[in-house]
Amino acid sequence: MNRVILIRYGELSTKKGNRNFFVKTLTKNIEHKLKNYSVKIQKDLGRMYIYFEDKDLDDITNILKNIFGIQMYHVAYIVNTNSDDITKSVLSILSSISFKTFKVEVKRSFKGFEYDSPTFCKVLGSAILRNVKDIKVDVHNPEILVNVEIRENESFIYLNSFKGAGGYPVGSQPRGLLMLSGGIDSPVAGYLAMKRGIKVDCVYFEAIPHTSLEAREKVVSLVKKLVNYTDNINLHIVNFTKIQEAIYRECDHDYVITIMRRMMYRIMDMLCEKLNSYVIINGESIGQVASQTLVSMNTINSVTNIPVVRPVACLDKLEIIDIAKKIDTYDISILPYEDCCTVFVPKHPVINPDKLKCEVMEQKFDYNTMLKETVDNVLTIRVSDYEDVNELL
Ligand code: ATP
Ligand code: MG
Description:
Blueprint: E1 3-8, H1 19-33, E2 40-43, E3 47-51, H2 57-64, E4 72-79, H3 83-95, E5 101-108, H4 117-131, E6 136-137, E7 144-150, E8 155-158, E9 162-163, E10 175-179, H5 185-195, E11 199-206, H6 213-226, E12 232-239, H7 241-250, H8 256-274, E13 280-281, H9 294-301, E14 308-309, H10 317-326, H11 330-333, H12 340-343, H13 355-362, H14 367-376, E15 379-384, E16 390-392
Parallel strand pairs: 5-6, 5-7, 10-11, 10-13, 11-12, 13-14
Antiparallel strand pairs: 1-3, 1-4, 2-3, 4-8, 4-9, 7-8, 12-15, 15-16
Helix pairs in contact: 3-4, 7-8, 8-9, 8-14
Bound molecules: adenosine-5'-triphosphate (ATP) and magnesium ion.
């Protein structure tokens, strides 16, 4: 029997006016991810149908699991729209599994079919009871739910529903820039932002020679994991050394981290403008470290008017770690390379930094020229899901 994958959009179906756009974006994303397979994709208002070659089923379902915008999917057998054929096929499918209780659900979109749905439900149920030993019907909590959809040209039978990745298709929102360090939190933040449909690119601040090329490699490895959920990601590498050294030289050491992060946000603001991005995304989590108290966040955030989205702001570290393990970034994140934030970390960072004090310290060096020079010299690497990493200078 041939099979088809039925895709349910879930949350997408609620998007009345924009629905076409969302479905088109999802279709484009699915077509891209399945471009190496021989598939035929059709869609109607509520669902998408993927016709595939049997040998590719496992590969395809593994890919679909990572595509945002899919709420649920079923793998259905395709049968002729004829009551005898449908009954025989249901019995044949059930003969290969063991179960004690079942329920039949029939949906009939083809009104020319010889039975209405409740009657065909009974016909099928009786046939199953006659042919399979020691089973009974359980309408409330059946072990096996036999779904039958009667359609004009072909009908579908399926037993299982699989959970999709949920969310909105990547690209249904414009670009956002993720501040990606080598840590645990920021890749998770990037994953969650993509889940809401944002086309995420990444920005990594490095301070060579205080940080190593291995640290950069680690970030590239993280981007390679994130690209599983989209088609490509640009990784913008910012050389932060001069600015960081100036901060360390000119500012009170308890304020070094606060001012460093204000400079990072200023650069993010300039990069958003340059790269047509509408939001800054990062892995800040309320209260996690001194720079993430609400007072710190307020003092740091005040240098930009661009919205800052912090997907993990209200999660516990253990909840963040669970997601990091699920998306396979955790083992990379815990590799021990120094990050530019850790290299310059003071013994006692200020917990409630004062904006005015920051401004006074920042006046001690010509940071505007430095920021402009830094932004002009960003190195961009494109990480795509099908090709090797490309350097775009
Ligand atoms: P992570 O939050 O990624 O686990 P972390 O907790 O060590 O790493 P923090 O110092 O808490 O990072 O920084 C908070 C957030 O600021 C990070 O989640 C990340 O979004 C951003 N950030 C910190 N350092 C960098 C960097 N070197 N490059 C880009 N973004 C950074
Ligand atoms: Mg963190």
